[in-house]
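User: Can you predict the 3D structure for this chain?
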Amino acid sequence: MGDLRIPETAESAPPDAVTRYRFAPVRNRNFSLLWGDLLLSNTGTWMQTVAQGWLVITLTNSPGWLGAAALARSLPYLVLPPFGGVLADRIDRIHLPTRPTPRIGVTIEVPA
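Assistant: Here is the predicted structure, written as structure tokens:
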């Protein structure tokens, strides 16, 4: 593999060296999988958010109810983090990343 040192300026380096340096992380399989998964996950989350807002505005034709639905969706992100921090301090850190995953799936499927 070639030398991936950062060039002093983009003008002083050959174009292929700049491109090789810029896209070096994408060559790592795990990094590419992570970003691909994040892209799909975030796309699905935003599709759900837009669809729920569209449903509320279609059924009620009221901006107030649309705001209430947005508040209800974001309220857990505002209220629960302090409790999550306390819980994270008390749970074994090795198992911490694996416990919320099934719960996230359940919270997505229950409203549907």
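The mean pLDDT is 81. Helices lie at 15-22, 29-60, 63-79, 81-90, 100-109.
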